[in-house]
Specification:
This protein is mainly alpha-helical. The chain contains three helices and no strands.
């Protein structure tokens, strides 16, 4: 991105689980807890790291905030870059 004229832009990929909007909070909490448990298993964690993945985990509201931040961040890049859909 720096070579393209955007020295302050960093890009990375991420993967997460997304549930329907009206999923009950208790269900979201259960899914988050189960996913965190899996991501903290030494063999799973080691395998992901071997693939270049940084297993983070977290709670549903943290991931929701992250996605909102990403939308704002990349929206600004699109605007500044004059990106248009043809």
């Amino acid at each position: 991105m720096a070579e393209a004229g955007y020295p302050t832009v960093t890009a990375s990929s991420w993967i997460g689980l997304i549930a329907p909007a009206k999923t009950p909070p208790a269900i979201l909490a259960k899914i988050s807890a189960e996913m965190d448990a899996v991501l903290h298993q030494p063999d799973v964690r080691a395998r992901l790291i071997d693939y270049g993945i940084d297993p983070v985990g977290g709670k549903a509201d943290q991931f929701q905030a992250f996605i909102k931040d990403e939308l704002v961040r990349w929206g600004e890049v699109v605007k500044k870059g004059g990106v248009r859909v043809e």
